[in-house]
UniProtKB/TrEMBL annotation, chain A:
<feature type="domain" description="VPS9">
    <location>
        <begin position="111"/>
        <end position="255"/>
    </location>
</feature>
<feature type="region of interest" description="Disordered">
    <location>
        <begin position="431"/>
        <end position="466"/>
    </location>
</feature>
<feature type="compositionally biased region" description="Polar residues">
    <location>
        <begin position="393"/>
        <end position="407"/>
    </location>
</feature>
<dbReference type="GO" id="GO:0005085">
    <property type="term" value="F:guanyl-nucleotide exchange factor activity"/>
</dbReference>
<feature type="compositionally biased region" description="Basic and acidic residues">
    <location>
        <begin position="289"/>
        <end position="317"/>
    </location>
</feature>
<dbReference type="InterPro" id="IPR045046">
    <property type="entry name" value="Vps9-like"/>
</dbReference>
<dbReference type="GO" id="GO:0016192">
    <property type="term" value="P:vesicle-mediated transport"/>
</dbReference>
<protein>
    <submittedName>
        <fullName>Putative Guanine nucleotide exchange factor Vps9</fullName>
    </submittedName>
</protein>
<dbReference type="Pfam" id="PF02204">
    <property type="entry name" value="VPS9"/>
</dbReference>
UniProtKB/TrEMBL annotation, chain B:
<protein>
    <submittedName>
        <fullName>Ras-related protein RABF1</fullName>
    </submittedName>
</protein>
<dbReference type="GO" id="GO:0005525">
    <property type="term" value="F:GTP binding"/>
</dbReference>
<dbReference type="GO" id="GO:0012505">
    <property type="term" value="C:endomembrane system"/>
</dbReference>
<dbReference type="InterPro" id="IPR001806">
    <property type="entry name" value="Small_GTPase"/>
</dbReference>
<dbReference type="Pfam" id="PF00071">
    <property type="entry name" value="Ras"/>
</dbReference>
<dbReference type="GO" id="GO:0003924">
    <property type="term" value="F:GTPase activity"/>
</dbReference>
<dbReference type="GO" id="GO:0005768">
    <property type="term" value="C:endosome"/>
</dbReference>
<dbReference type="GO" id="GO:0030139">
    <property type="term" value="C:endocytic vesicle"/>
</dbReference>
<dbReference type="InterPro" id="IPR027417">
    <property type="entry name" value="P-loop_NTPase"/>
</dbReference>
Length: 520, 201
């Protein structure tokens, strides 16, 4: 179905070829100066002191200048506006993927805002009703809204501003379609903003997307200005409004009696540690002074719980256990790098040093088995130290499934054959863990898009587009993985672990699926 | 009521979306951001739908969400104006969010329901807000909708005219149900746009 934000999202113009097309052109010898400028810009950005305003301005200026330079360059001679447009998208994605670790959530105040916002959503989502937001009964359909929530929860799986924006637009699209269907099947008026915004707010609260505030600021700062206009700008403004509304939520804005609101918040707070392990935000709590006593109580409850866990695993810190996962991981990685004979630690993982070309069809099965074992080990490990959070249903499996769908056909030969098995496996994992990956896991599951241009002289021997461990949720950045791999001198030629997210393609497909599902 | 009978054409929404960044306004072809304010239930989205679908095949089955729509009109002087219409949620609890929407808008249409004095008061509130926080050269229109329900009228034309004149606004009564004055509303707005400086989209 077309409509709503439909065209915006599934617009075919810049979809499938964009990214590879951009990379291909950058590999041309005549692009050498572009590559140099891009690299030098990235270099200068990463080394300078962070200032969000200046950072945004410099990236915007750079992207604008580069696209103008593309326009004037023989590489794009005779190209349509559309192809140039693709190049601009590719450039933005490349640059921002490279700058992500420096540009995203780099400000401590904003990170604090994220935590407090997330906590607020975690509490409010437990008692908010559609009527609290003026959602008419005709338009109340919580089950279908799950689809919209899922779109929003994908936001941290991407690094490029456009891809993140697409998650938001997809969410809005699903909501629009649901509203339309509801209005067509009743005699209700065509839904407008009076209907749309309340549902978006409701969906956002229920989704509690990770680092929402940082994500919005990141999009605002680094999505090219010329492209944050018109319809995308409208829907972006809506999610920004939703964020602002949620941030300021109180008894009055929900038309709940003050006392009742307080009680609801307290009960929610009391429930939270029991059903979730999202303790980072709980401990970061207490800007609400009324609840200090209660909060203290919860805190002590919580540390009791961690005490118990501590007995199980002496290494887990008693405050922020999700964080301790990444701390452990980082520590381990650092220790590994110091090891003399790093290789022995990996000897049982026969595919670690393989490149796509080394694989035979027969290996696929082995690889899959290996992968399954690894996932189960990892999941059990996480479970063991209590790093799972039930608030994100099935995103681990979904991510895995998605990755398998969007894989380049030549990445792993005969991969299709295993897709059925893979689905079964995903299902099994889903069933085996009643709880789903935590916020923390979710964040670390973001795509570790890592792309390299060839050397300036055009040698591109290293472009192995392999899946990386990102899908498993390791905290290790691809660069770090690379570092570990390379630090052991085994003469392997893998210098690049990268994975094309294929996001544009898969997003439109997926949304289409969601919408088909949404239409009765 | 009165706006659910048919649905607009797919072109109506002009859903070029993410890749629409390159279309720039020039002196012949303006692109303007229009924000729509007013209490919930005054028929904001109906006004827009009427306007947008008026010029398209009403038998089309394709539907669009009505919170963002765009429509281009041609003026007698052979210029065109593309309106990008931003609807806002009119419920009281969302009032504080409106500045996020009218920031950078070249036009604000403030709508009320002629059968509801409450909605007229709300309209006055929006006008004051816009005068305080909107861009200084914003073109404002006061729109009394549901003019077909004149037997239930509680807001007189005189009152509205007086208020509009005092605040330098253009005033019109419309009926989204009968399509009365809908096109006139947008044509009049187009005429009032300051030509070269409005290129704010």
């Amino acid at each position: 179905m077309e409509g709503g934000v439909g065209g915006a999202v599934s617009s075919p113009a810049s979809t499938p070829l964009t990214w590879n097309d951009f990379l291909d052109r950058m590999r041309q010898p005549s692009a050498v100066n572009f590559v140099k400028s891009i690299k030098s810009f990235i270099e200068s950005f990463t080394t300078k002191v962070r200032n969000t305003e200046e950072d945004s301005a410099s990236v915007q200026q750079f992207l604008f200048n580069m696209v103008e330079a593309f326009r004037a360059h023989p590489l794009w001679a005779g190209c349509s506006e559309e192809e140039l447009e693709s190049a601009g998208e590719g450039l933005e994605k490349y640059v921002m993927t490279k700058l992500f670790n420096h540009a995203f959530a780099s400000n401590p105040d904003e990170r604090k805002h994220d935590e407090e916002l997330s906590e607020k959503m975690a509490l409010v989502q437990q008692f908010i009703r559609p009527e609290n937001l003026d959602i008419k009964p005709t338009f109340q359909n919580e089950t279908s809204w799950l689809l919209a929530q899922k779109e929003l929860q994908k936001i941290n799986m991407y690094k490029a501003p456009r891809d993140k924006l697409v998650c938001i637009l997809n969410c809005c699209k699903v909501i629009n379609n649901l509203l339309l269907n509801a209005s067509l099947s009743t005699s209700e008026n065509h839904p407008g903003a009076d209907e749309f915004l309340p549902v978006l707010i409701y969906v956002t609260i229920k989704a509690n997307p990770p680092q929402l505030y940082s994500n919005l600021l990141y999009i605002q700062r680094y999505r090219r200005e010329s492209h944050l206009v018109s319809e995308p700008a409208y829907y972006f403004t809506n999610i920004f409004s939703a964020e602002s509304f949620i941030w300021n939520i109180n008894a009055k804005t929900l038309s709940i009696d003050e006392l009742e609101f307080q009680n609801n918040m307290e009960s929610a707070r009391a429930l939270l540690p029991g059903i979730s392990t999202n303790t980072d935000s709980i401990t970061a709590t207490s800007q609400t002074t009324h609840h200090d006593v209660k909060t203290e109580r919860i805190k002590s409850k919580e540390s009791q719980a961690s005490e118990n866990r501590k007995k199980l695993d002496g290494k887990v810190s008693d405050t922020a256990k999700s964080e301790s996962v990444s701390v452990l991981e980082t520590k381990g990685a650092n220790d590994l790098l110091k090891e003399e004979e790093l290789r022995k630690y990996f000897s049982e993982y026969q595919f670690l040093y393989a490149s796509a070309g080394d694989l035979t069809v027969k290996d696929v099965e082995n690889l899959l088995d290996n992968y399954k074992q690894l996932v189960l080990k990892y999941v059990s490990f996480l479970k063991g130290i209590g790093a799972f959070n039930p608030s994100f249903p099935s995103s681990l499996t979904e991510k895995s499934a998605e990755t398998s769908n969007t894989r380049e056909p030549n990445d792993v030969k005969e991969s299709d054959r295993d897709s059925d098995k893979f689905d079964v496996f995903c299902k099994a994992v889903e069933d085996s863990i009643s709880e789903s990956p935590s916020d923390q896991t979710d964040q670390t599951m973001e795509s570790n898009d890592h792309h390299e241009f060839p050397d300036a002289d055009g040698n591109s021997s290293v472009n192995t587009w392999t899946e990386d461990s990102g899908m498993l949720g390791f905290n290790l950045s691809p660069t770090r993985v690379e570092e570990i791999l390379n630090s052991d001198t085994i003469g392997n030629s893998i210098t690049n672990i990268s994975k094309d997210h294929g996001s544009l393609d898969s997003d439109s497909e997926k949304t289409q699926r969601s919408n088909e599902a949404a239409v009765p | 009521m009165g706006c659910a009978s048919s649905v607009p054409d797919r072109n109506a929404g002009s859903l070029t979306g993410l890749n629409d960044g390159s279309t720039a306004s020039d002196s012949k072809n303006l692109k303007v951001k229009l924000v729509l304010l007013g209490d919930s239930g005054v028929g904001k989205s109906c006004i827009v739908l009427r306007f947008v679908r008026g010029q398209f095949d009403p038998t089309s089955k394709v539907t669009v969400g009505a919170s963002f729509l765009s429509q281009t009109i041609a003026l007698p002087d052979s210029t065109t104006v593309k309106f990008e219409i931003w609807d806002t949620a009119g419920q009281e609890r969302y009032a504080a969010l409106a500045p996020l929407y009218y920031r950078g808008a070249a036009v604000a249409v403030v709508a009320y329901d002629i059968t509801s004095s409450e909605s007229f008061s709300k309209a006055k509130y929006w006008v004051k807000e816009l005068q305080k926080h909107g861009s200084p050269d914003i073109v404002m229109a006061l729109v009394g909708n549901k003019a077909d329900l004149h037997e239930n009228r509680v807001v007189s034309v005189e009152d509205a005219v007086e208020y509009a004149e005092k605040n330098g606004m253009f005033f019109i009564e419309t009926s989204a149900k009968t399509a009365d004055n809908i096109n006139q509303l947008f044509e009049e707005i187009a005429k009032r746009l300051p030509r070269p400086s409005v290129v704010s989209v």
